[in-house]
From TrEMBL, chain A:
It is found in: Cell projection, Cilium membrane; Cytoplasm, Cytoskeleton, Cilium axoneme; Cytoplasm, Cytoskeleton, Cilium basal body. It comes from Microcebus murinus. This is ADP-ribosylation factor-like protein 6. GO terms for cellular component: axoneme; ciliary membrane; cytosol; microtubule cytoskeleton; nucleoplasm. Keywords: Cell membrane, Cell projection, Cilium biogenesis/degradation, Cytoplasm, Cytoskeleton, GTP-binding, Lipoprotein, Magnesium, Membrane, Metal-binding, Myristate, Nucleotide-binding. The lineage of its organism: Eukaryota, Metazoa, Chordata, Craniata, Vertebrata.
Automatic annotation (TrEMBL), chain B:
This is Bardet-Biedl syndrome 1. Residues 600-702 form the Bardet-Biedl syndrome 1 protein GAE domain. Residues 60-75 have a biased composition (Low complexity). Residues 89-342 form the Bardet-Biedl syndrome 1 N-terminal domain. PANTHER family: BARDET-BIEDL SYNDROME 1 PROTEIN. One of its GO terms (molecular function) is smoothened binding. One of its GO terms (cellular component) is ciliary membrane. Residues 53-82 are annotated as: Disordered. It comes from the Eukaryota. Coiled coil: none annotated.
């Protein structure tokens, strides 16, 4: 990483644009997370189930993110794969309190990782073990066990416990993602 | 009352079939011809008797319990079998000790709170059928649990009123009551109307109240009523009759002032849309009762909107249509029949006769799928259901004629002379047409509908005693799930937020939750399921010729004489056979010596191409202990044709059990390619009659011809 790049990044003069896919089952909190990452004046008050997908933008310290917030409903999940090519990073959101559908999340993740557009790319994946505020939520360690994340060998990944309503844990995740993207670029 | 239903068209062919004498092949052929039946390879003959017992216990519960006890058999491996790697199902949850003991009628999935999170309602019988409980599950955990006063018979959810917010009410049938819950709080309790008590019984208790009768006399009188009277006793009297002498006094004192109530119990329950066919339309409850009645309840006021009577006790119900417009109810009953009821009929219009007791009833579109105790699934339809069903909007009640449809339909099952039907049944025309039958590898424990809305698939799931759950679309096997234990209840639908979830509970009280993969598509496994195609082809029965008719007539008239003539010939044949056998034994012509003192076995082999053959005689002494001594062998042959070095020689001692090969050479002298018989005689020293003899057909000498 060049000194000038760093400098310009710090000063916010020139921010690189990255495309990120936000995936996960319905009701896992994808839209809420993206909403929370936007500047406070741009946040919307009520979140409704996403239909199809929506495109959101937010900025971190050195990157400008364009997020494809995909709908997680079963009938829209086949749309995901059409955007795999464009994505430079993936945010995968998991409802930690939905113990029953953890297998479904794992199934969708496996399908994602085995897709030809993803399989041979070193694309960073950020996992949010969301809804940590709920009583029956399992820990992020347990989530990573249930999803068998240790089997992902060829891609950088990171799991963050988060509470999207309060915004806890989100920044940590985005910082990791930013580092990964910048590391991949240089 | 039953006379109102028009009598069935006299089933002449069936009657005719039975009149033909049973013993002749032609008689059987005639039967076959008359009925125009297809080959029923899948019907075992013993099952007809089973269905002959009318009203044999509560089928829904006892049969499943009986089958649960049956040992699980080995399952054959099907192509549609779900393997670990390419299974269509995700294993979401398995708890072998969830302590849920129930059957499919008591499992229901519903959005009880109206928050989009579907819960599972379980009417639990308790581990030994002793502690009935109402359980509500959210995900893998039990949300609430409350005790029930009696064993649950069925659970259902329905919308009571149209206005928002729409949270469905939960109805649980238990004993003589339906408990209705809203938002999981008790809302209403509907009790079945009491039945008129026996006046004699009433009078007795009245006397007991005034102390004019002592408990012992009361008991005797009540027992008399129980045996004779048409109206059964009330629960109070029945309990009294069970008591020991010492407890009677107290019981009488405690209960004598109460009025006698006689109540029936609910055996089954389902829901029927009131006036709209929408998904979120108000529904009525339909109850099946032990007193052979069906009741339709108003969803808001819980008044009885309609009452229908059946010839037997209903155990499974399927409803379709709308109550205010036109509806059809199919009730599988304990007498092994399925009765079809329609709007404006107090009695069944048509019935489907099964060859065995039903264990489950599922309606898939317009086909009724019935599981029977014969371990098979049957698909039934009836012309009425398909053709006479009027469009909901053009329907006029007055246009409804009571007459049965024209056109001949085959009876669902062949009527056997062995199965006496209850006297009521002939009043209901038998109209169901069997579409197909699929044989299961094990007994069916439970059945339910699999409705995959996203793909528009409706299929039948059947839980078997060998732990399999099989999914069928019509007769095509789509999938097999192997459960670790026999599955006793099944339910498919939206659970939590997942659309296609399968809930299974096992005999041991386990709970299995599986989720259908988003990408899974059910495909038919191919032609290996169901009856072989040959079964569907009609037999090419020859036309009834004049000769055939004459022969049949002659058989019928002179049957006895023909039988006698045949028997005489048979005896003569047997006599001749016996004579010839005895003669062979007496002249020792057989290669086995049958005298008790000298058992011997001879077996000869000829080797070689010629002109010199090697003749090997295998001599064996099959007795257990006695060695054979002093035997001689003699060959008898045409000396012009054959030459033997030794035509007569001694046999060594024969040790019991051992095989003695005795070899000798035979030279063929003829160069004309002639062969002859060589006789071998085994003799005993000092006796002229041979012990045994053998004729050896010598082969033609080929060596000479080649030379």
């Amino acid at each position: 990483m060049g000194l000038l790049d760093k400098l310009s990044g710090l000063l916010g003069l020139r921010k690189k644009e990255v495309h990120v896919l936000c995936l996960g089952l319905d009701n896992s909190g994808k839209t809420t997370i993206i909403n929370k990452l936007k500047p406070s004046n741009a946040q919307s008050q009520d979140i409704v189930p996403t239909i199809g997908f929506s495109i959101e933008k937010f900025k971190s310290s050195s990157l400008s993110f364009t997020v494809f917030d995909m709908s997680g409903q079963g009938r829209y999940r086949n749309l995901w794969e059409h955007y795999y090519k464009e994505g430079q990073a993936i945010i995968f959101v998991i409802d930690s309190s939905d113990r029953l559908r953890m297998v479904v999340a794992k199934e969708e993740l496996d399908t994602l990782l085995n897709h030809p557009d993803i399989k041979h790319r070193r694309i960073p994946i950020l996992f949010f073990a969301n809804k940590m505020d709920l009583r029956d939520a399992v820990t992020s360690v347990k989530v990573s066990q249930l999803l068998c994340l240790e089997n992902i060998k060829d891609k950088p990944w990171h799991i963050c416990a988060s509470d999207a309503i309060k915004g806890e844990g989100l920044q940590e995740g985005v910082d990791w993602l930013q580092d990964q993207i910048q590391a991949a670029k240089t | 009352m039953l006379g109102r239903v028009t009598a069935p068209p006299p089933d002449a062919t069936q009657e005719g079939g039975q009149r033909i004498p049973q013993w002749g092949f032609r008689g059987w052929l005639g039967k076959l011809r008359a009925r125009n039946l297809r080959v029923r390879a899948y019907h075992r003959p013993g099952t007809i008797e089973r269905c002959a017992a009318p009203g044999a216990g509560p089928v829904a519960r006892t049969t499943s319990a009986k089958m649960a006890a049956a040992s699980s058999s080995d399952s054959d491996s099907g192509r549609a079998e779900s393997k670990e790697a390419n299974s269509k199902w995700l294993d979401a949850h398995y708890d072998p000790v969830a302590n849920i003991h129930t059957f499919s009628a008591c499992l229901v999935l519903a959005d009880l709170h109206g928050d989009g999170e579907h819960k599972l309602v379980v009417g639990d019988l308790g581990p030994s059928g002793q502690q009935p409980r109402l359980k509500v599950l959210k995900g893998p955990t039990v949300l609430t649990e409350s005790p029930l006063p009696a064993l649950p018979a069925a659970a259902a959810t329905f919308l009571m009123e149209q206005h928002e917010p729409q949270a469905p009410a939960l109805a649980l049938a238990s004993g003589p009551c339906v408990y209705v819950y809203k938002n999981l709080r008790p809302y209403f309790k509907f009790s079945l109307p009491p039945l008129p008590p026996n006046p004699l019984e009433q009078d007795l208790w009245h006397q007991a109240k005034e102390d004019r009768i002592d408990p012992l006399t009361l008991k005797e009188m009540l027992e008399g009523i129980r045996e004779k009277a048409e109206v059964p006793l009330s629960v109070q009297s029945l309990r009294f009759l069970q008591l020991e002498l010492s407890e009677m006094e107290a019981f009488v004192n405690q209960h004598k002032s109460k009025t006698i109530k006689r109540q029936t119990v609910i055996t089954t329950m389902t829901t029927l849309k009131k006036n709209l066919s929408d998904e979120d339309a108000v529904s009525c409850l339909v109850l099946g009762c032990e007193n052979k009645e069906l009741l339709v309840l108003d969803p808001e006021a819980f008044t009885i909107l309609a009452k229908m009577s059946l010839p037997s006790v209903p155990v499974f119900l399927e409803a379709s249509g709308q109550f205010d417009v036109e509806f059809r109810l199919a009730a599988a009953c304990r007498n092994g029949n399925i009765y079809i009821l329609r709007r404006d009929s107090k009695h069944p219009k048509y019935c489907i006769e099964l060859s065995a007791q039903p264990v489950g009833l599922v309606r898939v579109h317009k086909v009724l799928v019935v599981g029977s105790t014969e371990d098979s699934l049957h698909g039934f339809t009836h012309k009425v259901w398909l053709q006479q069903a009027p469009a909901p909007h053009s329907y006029l009640p007055s246009a409804q004629g009571p007459e049965s449809p024209s056109g001949f339909l085959f009876p669902a099952t062949p009527l056997s002379p062995l199965s006496p039907k209850p006297p009521q049944t002939p009043a209901v025309p038998c109209q169901g047409k069997k579409l197909w039958t699929v044989q299961m590898p094990a007994a069916i424990l439970t059945m339910n509908l699999l409705d995959q809305r996203s793909r528009g698939l409706q299929a039948v799931m059947a839980g078997l005693a060998n732990g399999e759950v099989r999914i069928y679309r019509d007769k095509a096997l789509l999938n097999i799930i192997r459960a670790p234990d026999a599955v006793t209840s099944l339910c498919f639908g939206r659970y939590g937020r997942e659309e296609n979830t399968l809930i299974m509970t096992t005999r041991g009280g386990g709970l299995i939750i599986k989720i259908l993969k988003r990408t899974a598509v059910f495909v038919e496994a191919g032609g290996e399921v169901g009856p072989p195609p040959a079964q569907a082809t009609k037999l090419n029965v020859p036309r009834k010729t004049r000769l055939y008719v004459d022969q049949t007539l002659r058989e019928r008239e002179a049957g006895t004489a023909m039988h006698r003539a045949f028997q005489t010939d048979l005896y003569l044949l047997r006599l001749r056979t016996a004579r010839a056998y005895v003669q062979a034994l007496e002249s020792s012509l057989s290669p086995m010596s049958m005298t008790a003192r000298e058992p011997l076995k001879l077996h000869a082999v000829v080797q070689g191409l010629g002109p010199i053959f090697k003749l090997t005689l295998h001599l064996q002494n099959p007795s257990t202990a006695r060695p054979a001594l002093g035997l001689l062998i003699c060959f008898l042959y045409n000396e012009a044709l054959y030459a033997l070095p030794q035509a007569f020689f001694k046999v060594p001692l024969l040790v019991p059990g051992l095989n003695y090969p005795l070899e000798t050479f035979v030279e063929s002298l003829s160069d004309k390619g002639i062969s002859d018989i060589i006789k071998v005689l085994v003799l005993r020293e000092g006796q002229s009659a041979p012990l045994l003899s053998a004729h050896i057909n010598m082969p033609v000498s080929e060596g000479l011809a080649a030379a």
